[in-house]
Amino acid sequence: MPAAVMNGIFTRIGIPSTIQLLILVTSIDYVSVSTLMIFENRFYLLNSKKKWWKRIRPFWMIVNFLLAPLHQIPNILEFPDQKYARELVINNLPCVPEFLYTADLVLPSLNSPTIVINSILFVSIIFGQLAIFANIIIAQLYTNFGANTLSKTTRHLQKRLLKTLVLQTGIPVVSLVFPGIYAFFSIYTGHFDMGLNNLVATVASLHGLVSTLSIILIHQPYRDTVLFWRKNKKSESKRWSIPVGSNLTNH
């Protein structure tokens, strides 16, 4: 039985926990969709002369962007009465911390398989498409089958870019995949471990930081910009610092 306690800015300003949970899950879904769009963009650039894809591309993008909020409808319909669900959770937990008695618990569903199956279907659809685009791009870059004619230099640059995109999307996804796998296992089996739950929530919350660091470390333009900013900052501090010895000499 999945349950959570929302604790952040939205809680402070009085936004209901159910709305916060919906925003959180939908945001994660849009991260998945945007990752798919990155690989589709690579495919489109390699196949820009294909008129059939140009025609269906806008509709394909609309369907995928709508899928993120719409696939939440079965979960929304499963939302139970929160007061009853809260009492049920507290009575079933083996060891209830004191803060949970007064915390604003939110339970998306009393029927765990619905959430698990719905989430697996969404992930399969999005990352299934991503895998198809990635495989087509790899095949076209290494064989030129069906792609626009590419020069040797362009092909080399496209291969490098593909590798960086795989790293850019793959490294942050790990910070969501492992917590997600444990969450599905915990929900489906009814396993409860407060320590592991806190660890999983902490790892998942680091996704933004991991994404930012991976972009800076993997892409040279971002890396050069950060190093240039640091270098300028150091030179500015040196310029405004006045040696003590020179002041004494002047006096």
Automatic annotation (TrEMBL):
Stored InterPro entries: 7TM_GPCR_serpentine_rcpt_Srh (IPR019422)
Residues passing through the membrane, by range: 20-39, 115-143, 164-187, 199-218
Key words of the record: Membrane, Transmembrane, Transmembrane helix
Superkingdom classification of source: Eukaryota
Alphabetical list of PANTHER family matching this protein: SERPENTINE RECEPTOR, CLASS H-RELATED
Protein name: Serpentine Receptor, class H
UniProt organism field: Caenorhabditis nigoni
Gene symbol of the encoding locus: Cnig_chr_V.g17955
